[in-house]
Amino acid sequence: MTLLLPSRQDIAARLSDPEYLARVGATAHDDAEDWSQRPGGPVPAAVLVPIIWHETGPGVLLTLRSARLSAHAGQVAFPGGRIEPGETAEEAALREAAEEVGLDPRQPVIAATLPDHMTGTGYRVTPVVAFLDPPVILTPDPSEVQLVFELPLALLFDPAAPTRRSTQWRGRMRDYWVWPHAEHLIWGATATILMNLARVLRQSEPAR
């Protein structure tokens, strides 16, 4: 049986409806860390969640961070980074994607945003979902990105695909999501953002 994906318009409508997002149960934190007590508060950041609509089936673009980076080296991530003063989340996500993977900022069509996500390292991340039509020409910056790959969007419709794991960090056990991939470990904030997107996609009723 062929999987019937929601339309781009339907996805954008769902992402723009706060009541709908509340119904699907988007997760706002990696763990129970209270970053409200951090001096200056959490650091605002944004990531681009690009969905490329291939004729053979859409895919979510992800990056493998360079092993030479001082933070989160070798981890799977969305293109993104800190929001600079005066920037919107959308502007920051497009700028970072241009810097990291050479994505032309005129090409993505912004759909909407997922709920802000607090990471265990003190960042408040706004995931900006965007649609792209191929061909998508990318020139990754080797100082930041080792490679670019895609996760089939259809995988997000399988409730059994993501698994829950635990590890000890800062003196206590932390739970985190992992998405299956033959070559890369997709976990942490990236996996949780994918889980939030999956919850939006799996909901059978369109937003009203």
UniProtKB/TrEMBL annotation:
Keywords: Hydrolase, Magnesium, Manganese, Metal-binding. It holds the Pfam family NUDIX. Its cofactor is Mg(2+); Mn(2+). Signal peptide: none annotated. Residues 42-173 form the Nudix hydrolase domain. CDD domains: NUDIX_CoAse_Nudt7. Belongs to the Nudix hydrolase family. This is CoA pyrophosphatase.
